[in-house]
Amino acid sequence: MCPVERKAGTSASPERPDVSRRNKSEQTDVHLKPDDSESRLDCESLRSDRSKENPPIFAADRTDVHVKPDDSESRLDCESLRSDRSKENPPIFAADRTDVHLKPDDSESRLDCESLRSDRSKENPPIFAADRTDVDLKPDDSESRLDCESLRSDRSKENPPIFAADRNVKSAKPPAPRKIGEDAALPPSMEDWTTEHVKQWLTAKLRIPLSVSQNLYESETSGACLVSFEKQDLVELKVPLAPALQILREVKRFNSRSEPSARPHEPESQRTAEHHLETQTVSTDSGFHSESSAVVILQEARDKIKRLLEKPTDEQLSEHTSDQFSEHTSDQFSEHTYGQVIEHIPTATHMKKTLSAMRPFDKSNVPVFYSEHHFLPAIVGPSNLLEPVHEYQLLPDSEEVSQKEALFEFTNEMFCFAASCMNSRTNGTIHFGVKDKPSEEHGQIIGLKISSRSLYSEAFELNVSKYFDQKHITSARTCIRPPVFIQVQREDGTASDKCVIEVDVIPLYSETLDSVFYTIFNIPSTEKHQSKSECLFVRDGSRKVNILSDSNPRVLQDKIKDIDEKVKHWASARRAAEQRHEPPPSCENQGQRLKQLITRGRDALSNSIQVFVVTDKCVSTQLEHMDFLKELNLFAVLDFDPESAKDGTCHFYRKDRVANLHFPHMYSTQDSTSVIAKLNLFKQTSWIFCNGQAGEDGDLEKPLTPGEWLKKRSGDITNMVSFLCSPDLLPRHGLLVIIILHSAVTDISSPILETFCALYRSLEGMDNMLCLCKDATVFSHWKNLVDIRCKENITNKCIHSLSFQEISSTIKTLKEPQTRASRRFLPSTGSSSVQLEKKDEEMMPDLEILCENECENTEIETKTSFEDFKKKTEEDFYRGGQVSWWNFYLSEQPGSLPFIKRDRYTELHKIICPVQSHMPPCVIVSLFHHPGCGGTTLAMHILWSLKNKFRCAVVKNQMATNKDIALQVRKLLIYGKQDQSGFTPVLLLTDNWYDVEDLRQCIISATTDRNQPNMVVILKCERTPFPNEASRNSDNPNVIISAKLSLKEKDLFYEKYEELKKSHDKLDTFYAFMIMKNNFSKDYISDLVNNILKDLDVGSKQGRLLGGLALLNAYVHDSYMSLSLCEELMEIRSPLRKTETLEDKMNPYSTLLITFTVEEHGTYQAVRLLHQMIAENCLKVYKEHKLKLSDVTADLLYCENLYKTCMGKDFLIQFIQSMLVTRSRREQGDDKNTLFSPLIEDIQKEEGVDKVTEVLERAVKRFDRSATLPQALARHMCLNEKDFDSALKWALDAQSKRSNSYIADTVGQVYKSHLKKIIEDSKEQSPESLDECLNLASKAVSAFKESQELAKKDEHDPLDLHFKRGHTSYNLSGYLAETEVTMMALDLITELPVFTATGRHSRDKMLQFLRGQHPLSSLGHHNDPRMNAIVHVLKNHERFLISLKPRLKENFSFFEDYFTYLRPRHVPLKKETVEERNKRKVSELFKKYIILFSCSEEEKLSERAKNPKLSLQQVIVDHREDLEMMQADSFAGLLQSLSHKDPKDIENILAKWKFIFENSRSRFPSTSDTVNYILANIVLHSVKPNSSLLKKYEELVTILNDTLQREGTRSNMSELYYLCMLLMWPSKEQSLKNFTEYSNITTYITSAKRSFHKRFSPMFPSRSAIAYFFLGRSSGLKRIINKAKLDQTLQESQSSDQIRNLWHTGQAWSDSNIQGKLLRVKGRSENGDIYVTYGANTKITVRPAYLGDIRSGYSREEVSFYLGFTLEGPVAYGVKYEN
Question: Residue 352: its pLDDT value, please?
């Protein structure tokens, strides 16, 4: 049967879909003549699985399309009609299309309506009209065929088109050779094709671009080559990926069609029969219970025909069946039609009927037996509605099919029958195990062999919600009785192993009313997974009929219009029949109803349900029966008993559970976050006194009369209810409201009734509500009041005939089996234990406490469901979920392998134990790990193994404050202790907690009253892309774990794999485990995703949601969507009421998803893909389906539901913005550097710049307060579009929203790019273009200067959102860009004719002008107007031009200091960094600067020869210029000379500095000249200690000391104090009394640190000072050992990469050669620092290079270390504790 176009799972209503939107009339026969085996109607457009909205409507009167002989290429090629791209106004096809005649020899001609491909049309496709008659394909049309792939019903997923009836199809002959052009006939075998054949086929058939086909032609690609090609072969032949994949698919398709026979071993009669069936099915597109059922019909018919063919009368049956199928029309080709066909098939045997008595209706305990081969009475239709109708079904035995298939058939048939009875309002029984053939064997008892009766009972219970709409589940459960199993005896009276299964249906009027019951029907599919469709079954005589199966739209429309009236008539008749036979009143179903209401139709009350209770005063005698409240997950109790806390329900509850006492006004606020935090919502129950509390006198807290309550408190109640029921706080499907009434409510203005009405409004009805009434009187009053106020009949939502004792016991039995022991114990001192009471545990809500008897003696272990629980627990973890304590417990049970111990387990265990090794009261142990490699699992494994030694806990609330956690840790620490001394230490796990140090301090502060060491160990588990670097930079003991398994670990994973295979059938879906087992293999993940998504419909809701998640997870780390949002997008309105969850709705793709808990503004569930690599591979699959990235992005930006009130909205918005603006950076762990976010770059690469503009403009509108989005748009318009005006507009817009160095730099970059474009486009500079260029250059420089100033204030890069947790870098872009613009301006000036006309002389004039030494007036040419105009422009910009050289010099000095004095704190090994790229750029710019402003040495010698009497000052200037060219004119440049210059060059440098130092014009050389001269001596001594130019050590100390006397200790010149450390560092052999200049060394070190911080503090977050020199073993200059020399020492045995790694890991200090050159200094560790003492008064502070070198706890210890010197001060390396 063909269902209406309505997706499974959506709620049904009497108003059914408008059938007028479909094909309007009957389409007449399509005749396929003999030999027309290949002719086809190629309408891929009609593939209903691609149509998403508004499917096509076929209307009338389309005339014949005649394709004449030899018109082999002619076809109706209307690509424009591809309707799956149409989003609005789909095409309307009119009825009665006339014949399409394909004449003889039209071997290739066909109606090729690619235009009808519903996936391709976008807007307003054409409308086809009327009267299409038969399509006659004449003989010899061997290639033409009706190729309507669109009709392949197994591809239809949603809203398939409905085709009109009466299309007759006749036989066709086998295929003949194809033709693709006028004269080019293709051989049947592709291997016989020539290169010309291949080219023709690619171009004409596949429409491959001519360039690609020509390339293959030139490569001599024949057919034999083509069939042997794989994807890589085509790519190597320079075929683009998309055409390559198309070619491979089409080759495979061609070869499969070209096979002589698809089934060569089958009988010809069978293939013929199947061909008739297939042709008939394709032409009619009608079938069994399916949205698109052609293939389903075909498969089922084939199966039944095969069974018939196996009988003795094979030929007769085959012939008869073929005739029946060929003659039958299509308007009712369904299960019912098939029955009519089979009725005419003669049977081979005739049996004598022996009737057997049926089981009495609706009596399950009557002892009845059936006899094998006896008969039940013939089935009849409904009589008086109370007499049951009967239906027989003979299911296959468990020996014939799998258990799963048998259960599938059972549930399908049972619920379809039940729905037909419920709609027709007749009682009925379906009998399984009885023959149902319309023949003499009809009604024969055969029986079924079933492996387990409980499986069928469970299938009934579990599958009700899969077949009925959510609002009808309760009615269905009430009307459909559980299965009854009746033993089948053999004919000799002995018991057989068979039984008959019977299900009774009793559609009581009180349950069915006027409802129409639509059925969501599961059908088998030729694909891997089942599909679903909606059906509407009614009884038609003795059979059930699906109203929605009719393929004739007119008939279907009429039937849908009639059904409502018919159902009302049947319902009325049913009510009358029940009244005539009214049984005595019975309340036996109230217990069942309570179960259904409290569990929402599920098997048990889920622990995830948040329960609200509204209650009035409970008498003391009933309190003991309120104990069920303690078993519920109470979120809030709205109590109207003012004395409840004294002796009522609240007092009773708080004896064993925690509840915070609140009042309604406390919830009246707009700030939900503060309310959640202050009131401890989600952590502890809120007990709200809605009518005040006895003993309170405040107006807001005292009890009130009902009249006063309405005036003064009802508003607070309304606000509170709105807050508590807000989707921001709780998803509606996770909420249950229980109203408990102990006394009658008779007043219509009662406060409790007003509260009910507020809840009713907020929850939009009673779906989430349940009323428990004391008795029928209370119920009657309550029902009447609610009916008056809300016009709602609440009878089905009330329980009134059960006592509260019965209610309490029933609810407690419905609780899910407890997975925790009822009595839990904590370890205590002396190997003792202390019981942890549940109430006390609730007082520590932010901690998940691990008890020493965790998972032992639990209720779940005693249940039969324990094995299922065990398997699910393992499945959840190994699929990728968070590890639970049960995983460790189960692995310790007999017969199980131990939980896998990672290699670092033992190391981490040793660090934590023994606890006595930790002296301070609280210590931190760090575990750094790659994401997704099992780091958190390892940490929890450690806790599990230490649960008997420590009181273990995990911080579970990410929103908790450190202070709250510290107080709870203290409570856990002292729990069960009185005044005894000694405590059991606490082991606290924090996962990705980034304020652990503050937490440690809070814990210490909270435990100051207990002077006990070794109390708390914090195990800090932190995800990081660089665990090795994090480990080296950590000041805590730590271990690391990476995404790579050792050989030992691989073996353990393999052993575990073999164990899991024994207990889990779907082990290959344990993707997290399999990824690790395969050592994080990329190939494994790619194959996995491709296999799962092979049948994905990317345009469906499932496809769009999966695409959105894949997009987020692929481009944003740790991103997710809330579960409630995903359910909203999938239109799952109440997932807890029915078994269709997100997992069901997303099946089979749900295996790639994982649901987890997020703590943000409360607790909620979130969804993401299992791994980022899986997300990336999902997007690749989407691209293969032609879904563009911009389309998925647009979905996220346009979807209003994403930005309305929902859980996790703020984080989702940040994820989306980050995806659009956050660029990739190698230094932050990315694989490359990008100009834009990876998503934007991919969109530009694949779709073009226009799409990028469209996406970003839409994003700017969506997030109108964001500054980063207009900034990104400005950069795009500038760099990609070259639209500088628009770029400037967006950049200034961004700057108006937020001002920082990055946005200011963007403004400058727009000016810079505009300037560059004008220069590139101008062949010759005119005065006007010169003026414009200089204006742009001036504006750019101003913007970059602003960026430089703002960089000193920036806290972080705004493009790095909070989840990009890398160390931020200092923004150098302003300095670098200014330098580039300055050089561009200088290049522009040098090319002007005023400076190039007269060669060298003109260049000198230019340099003098740029130095401000030459007037512009002398450059004018009075006879040349153009020259004068240029000079005039230069005059207007003279001030700017003269500033260029000084600014360049200043910027180069800045870069030199920045790169020389500082190094990045975190440098990724073997990865290029921004640092290295910037260094290259600066070096290139500096070379241009030198060429422009410096003269060569030859020029200077020539000048001196011409003028031997040059002044001394000019010689000094020349020397300075020489030093500048050699990059040795500064302190930083000289330091770099240590590793970049040979000794001869350094001698030359020292000679020049000596000349400058000794010939200073002033009395004393400048301080900078002095320090440079001293450093030049030190550098030369390091590389050539015997040079005659060197000053003696004592002379250098004297020069330095003299300079210090003049400068003092407040200078900003860090270099001066750096030399003090090098030359004046004391030693044990020296007597400070003899060297008074050494006595102030401590002061100079302090000055060095102060001046260094003043200059470079803005850069400290990302950089640290570099040590160029170390303290050696000798004296004088010989004890100053430069690092370059140490590198040379290591180079003797190591490569450069290995050397770099040795320094990074600290292993270099263990090298014996290094140790032989350096002096190990002894000192003392105090307060986290190291001190070295010389003499009695000199105590020098030394900073440890790695904080982890010093133990925590401020222990005073003797240490030794190697001493390095940085401009910030002395640094200790290789620290060792002497004791």
Answer: 54
